[in-house]
Input
Amino acid sequence: MSSKIVVRVEDLHKRYGNEEVLKGVSFILRQGEALAIIGPSGTGKSTLLRCINRLTEPDSGRIWLEDTEITGAKTDMNKIRQQIGFVFQDFNLFAHLTALDNVRLGLMKVKKLSKGEASERAMTELKRVGLAEKAKAYPAQLSGGQQQRVSIARALAMDPKLMLFDEPTSALDPELIGEVLQVMKALAGEGMTMVVVTHEMGFARSVCDEVIFMEQGVIVEQGPPEHIFLQPRQPRTQQFLGKIGELYGGTGS
Amino acid sequence: MERLDLIWQSLPLLWEGARVTVTLTICLLGVGLLLGVPVALGQVYGPRPLVILISGYERFFRAMPILVLLMVFFYGLAFLGVSLPAFGTAVLVFGLHSSAYQSQIFRGAIQAIKEGQLLAARALGMSRLQAIRYIVLPQALRLALPAWSNEYSGVLKDTSFVFAIGVTELTRQGWQIMQRTREVFLIFIAVALIYLVLTYLGTWLLELLERRFGIPGLAGQRREEHGRVV
Amino acid sequence: MSPKIGKWFVAVGMLALVVGLVSGIPQAQTPTFKVCSDIAWPPFEWVDAKGQFVGFDLDVMRIIALLKGYRVEIQNLGFDSIIPAVQAGQCDIGASGFTITDERKKIVDFSDPYWESNQAVLVHTASGLNIITAFKAGNIIGAQRGTTGADWVEQNVIKQGINVTLRLYETYPLAEQDLINRRIHAVVEDEPAAKVAVKASKGALKIAGVINTEELFGFLVQKGDPKRLLARINDGMKEMRRKGIWNNLVEAYFGVDVNLDRVAQCYGDLKGWLDKNQPEAYAENLAACMSGQAYKKP
Output
């Protein structure tokens, strides 16, 4: 494949106090690709994701979104972030706003769309995640799965070039995970470029084009899912997937 | 009865005093709000030097007895050639004092908002200021309402100090009527009843406001101690 | 969209600020002097049933202003605040039955004395106490904190070895109320105030006797009298005496047949004389009105 490169990450480092959580991470992501990042907890996956839109400030290394360097000193991050959708583990919906307003707020205040245009667009996105009838509900009136779908709609409404998912199903009850994964799967099918930090191996395997296995701040192994899940080269990857297999009875589900 | 008649005749004067008390209370709460919210925001989000400066401000005004502040502002400033009118001084002094207390109410409310929401706003491309304006403030104000309503009943009573600088409010009206009629008991029973009505009325209105702006899953906590969040 | 709570808050806040500031805007500059008084001490100054500022001190101030060609604005202010306010220049004249003392003279200047006050001993009518037995050892005597009455009990009773208890009150009416409730045996207070108390008590209280303390009341101004008010006040008082105004005012507020409750009507009816710059007519008719005689409205 030789389609356009959307994200390029080069030698990213991040340290919290004495602990170096990212020790030189590099990868590229092309348009339309879905990348899964897997690995044990506390190995810098979420930090890596947050560095990409600089919600967390990297110590060194460079990141580009298409041709713009995100890590540049003079980069207008507010402009960059509009183009990168971010979905949080615990949804982070605005508690005082209805589902519709959650989706609409960025359109009106950041993209400066009129209320009418914003509403129309927001409803389209809510329909896309199957929640048009919940437009008037407040976050506290929605289930976790519904909240996460609204938060995906909120990110999608901004027309992002890239979507980042930070363990989007980890805070959900098991029976609610499916509805969120389904939305994400559809999104990947539509050709959205996305990075997903996840523990859902089945999803990584069946939906993603590329998988990165990370541990202790470095990329241990990277490749297409069939390669990572079926013939992992690195003993650490085998060990990790083996443990997951013990837990869930198989490397996929 | 002759003595009840006396209360009846005194009502216009007491009403006049109550009007002053209520006007002053509303004005001072307004000033305290306009100052208290930025102070709270600065304390939570500001850079370190600002936080120190603001904490100093807040500690100072919370430590000062209101009477001392009134004297300093009214007489002290006049001594330096700055002559402020009495009612304006009262609004300013009580407003500053209340802003210190209100800032703590709002600080608590701001800190009660999950930080993730702020991150989510930034992730959408909002500036820090936009995030505070559209995400933090609307929630913080709602969360603060119950404690704010306690602040109301607290300052309502404090306003009786203003006679020190010549503003005749409810308590002073009662005092003056007592001096004229030598009727101690009934006059102050009447004054007490009026305070009770004002407290209930104000709290009730603020509760209406709470309901009007109420949002499912978003409610502040009522603090029972004398209106102040320590 | 959800209700815009922020806009409401800001609107209310701004409104409050504007109201606060506007109501505080000072009046246009006029050749006016500010007279400050704790208007709660009948018959020297009090607020009548209609909310008017009335009383001897205030009438003297108003009439001197007429005679000397300036205007006065009367400011109601707590007694303890008046001297600081005069010192700070927030008030030009303090007129609130101030006793002239050496201590006060150090920080303000006084006019010529305008009143000699004595202390009355109030007792309960049913107690049968007289001015001697009222101070019997073991008795409780009430007085207002910081007044000559309290001082007199201290100096001339307790320090003389008579074992009475002095109980101090914030204000006369509270001491009188305790006397009516018979929790104390006597109250020592300014004679004119005691007369007001006797009248209001409807027979429960009486004056057992009067002690000549000969304290003198004066009007006070800022130290050094920068606005040159004392000469005008002293001259004005002399002129009032010469024209008979003074005697009529004394008659009006301290006369035997006077009913202070009439003041709301009398002052209301007669203040027009002052507006017409005829203080003689005002004082004469006020004296008549206050003692229930026929009077002439302006």
